[in-house]
Design goal:
alpha+beta; FomD barrel-like fold; 7-stranded mixed β-barrel; 12 helices; 25 strands
Length: about 500
């Protein structure tokens, strides 16, 4: 397959895919220099992009190629977790407006149908999307049935929704097709725009009736063969997807709610999202080190912040790290945080792709060995999970986080200092970034009650997660081993 890769994991993933016999296309200048090779500029089967928060990647493209790539990505590290994108780019879906906001509407999208073990329907599978008002001709109200196209997908662990559109656009990086006549060029230079405007006639490829070509700025430096291949792909997509949408009655607000479908109306793409844990990032370091100078924790530091990413580039440009160097946690935290007295979020990931923020805590201690201690003052009401102890106003929760450890303890104390219990969370290796500690919860946990009794909890929840396909069995087995060791230690 042909893969286009962008973002902080590009060098490492390029190395891994080339080793697996795949083709990397449209490589950036730094990649061409690092590999000392020429890369083809053919249209990609799959596009891989680092997510905006730098915690992983999203991949979208040809369904068969996506399935193959997901297998490769999923094998990078034990704490790599990947989820199918229910609403990949370009997919046309039906849904209902559930909320109207200032600039657009929230749409509950129908992305498929659950089935019982006997094959009977259980109901629609859904996800949410965001439809800007300016992309649809009709006035939109809560309860309206709509048919829309996914313009920009969103990772499941972020607080973003996929961006939707009430009009079709199909194609790739060089050229797309949209309903209309003539040719449109998204280039500021008039002379270049005129040259591209004439390319449709020169290439002898005519868009389907009612469609027009939209040349993008990336087409300026592309060769004739690349432009022809890109236009051909866009035309094929327009013929396939456009026909399906026309047959279904078009896009926008639907007059008849009974026309809503549970399955996608049309799609030419598939996709997945991969969350990289700490072990995965260090495995990617190893792959990158085969190509160029790479400091220990290269991807771990870059995932922390844009400033930290620039610092890594500078450090590696000035000196090549030795083979026995270790991840400089103390140096990184001194430069970028967290710092004592500051705030730190606890981002509690779930194996199904969601992230729950446990709130902000105050940093009370930072050690160069990778240990960070934080405290939160609790509000009253309810009980502490697993402990069965009432939560009182003024209680203090002290959490000890250590970079790279597969667990962390939180000890709850009353306002008088009395220990009310300790809850030890089993998770993927903790990463302490400047603004947040992140990990994925692995369900099974160990608690120590005020009387000293130790109890292991939620093994059943872990089993259910494995059965649902959210937690890979090797990762679940690691979680059980960690929990057993904690039981013995406590």
């Amino acid at each position: 397959m042909n893969v286009r890769i962008r973002g902080i994991y590009t060098t490492a993933i390029t190395r891994l895919l080339l080793d697996a016999g795949h083709e990397v296309v449209d490589a950036s200048g730094p990649i061409r220099r690092r590999f000392e090779a020429e890369f083809p500029t053919a249209p990609p089967d799959v596009r891989v992009e680092t997510t905006a928060d730098r915690q992983g990647v999203g991949a979208h493209g040809d369904p068969e190629a996506i399935a193959d790539l997901r297998e490769h990505i999923g094998e990078i590290g034990l704490d790599t977790l990947a989820w199918t994108d229910p609403a990949p780019t370009g997919t046309v879906l039906d849904g209902e407006v559930t909320e109207t906001l200032g600039g657009g509407a929230v749409v509950r999208l129908r992305v498929g149908t659950d089935e019982t073990e006997s094959g009977g329907d259980k109901g629609s599978k859904t996800t949410e999307g965001y439809l800007p008002y300016g992309t649809v001709d009709d006035h939109v109200e809560t309860g309206d049935p709509v048919r829309v196209q996914v313009r920009e997908p969103a990772a499941p662990w972020t607080d973003r929704r996929p961006t939707l559109d009430g009009a079709l656009r199909l194609g790739g990086d060089l050229v797309s097709l949209e309903p209309g006549s003539g040719t449109r060029v998204d280039v500021r230079n008039d002379e270049t725009a005129r040259e591209l405007a004439g390319m449709v006639d020169l290439l002898g490829l005519e868009p389907p009736e009612g469609w027009r070509a939209v040349w993008k700025s990336s087409a300026v430096d592309a060769g004739t063969d690349e432009l022809e291949a890109g236009l051909r792909v866009a035309i094929e997509a327009a013929e396939e997807v456009g026909s399906a949408v026309d047959a279904a009655g078009g896009l926008g607000v639907l007059a008849d709610p009974s026309r809503l479908r549970d399955e996608p109306i049309a799609t030419s793409n598939s996709g997945f999202w991969a969350w990289f844990g700490r072990e995965t990032r260090f495995s990617l370091d190893d792959a990158r080190r085969e190509v160029t100078a790479t400091m220990p924790g290269h991807h771990r530091v870059k995932a922390g912040s844009a400033d930290a990413s620039a610092g890594v580039d500078l450090a590696e440009a000035l000196c090549e790290p030795g083979p026995d160097a270790e991840f400089p946690f103390g140096v990184v935290t001194d430069a970028f945080g967290p710092t004592e007295g500051g705030a730190l979020r606890i981002d509690h990931g779930k194996p199904d792709g969601r992230v729950v923020t446990l709130g902000e805590a105050t940093v009370t201690e930072v050690d160069a060995d990778g240990s960070v201690t934080v405290e939160r003052e609790m509000t009253g009401g309810g009980t502490y999970d697993g402990l069965g102890v009432s939560r009182e106003a003024g209680d203090i929760a002290e959490t000890s986080l250590k970079e790279g450890r597969w667990w962390y303890p939180t000890t709850y104390r009353g306002s008088d200092g009395t220990v009310r219990g300790t809850y030890v969370n089993v998770c993927t290796p903790v990463e302490v970034f400047p603004d947040a500690a992140r990990y994925v919860d692995l369900h099974v946990d160990v608690v120590k009650h005020p009387d000293g009794a130790v109890e292991r909890v939620d093994d059943d929840v872990l089993r259910e997660s494995v059965a649902a396909g959210d937690t890979p069995e090797p990762l679940a087995e690691k979680a059980r081993d960690v929990a057993s060791a904690l039981e013995d230690a406590l």
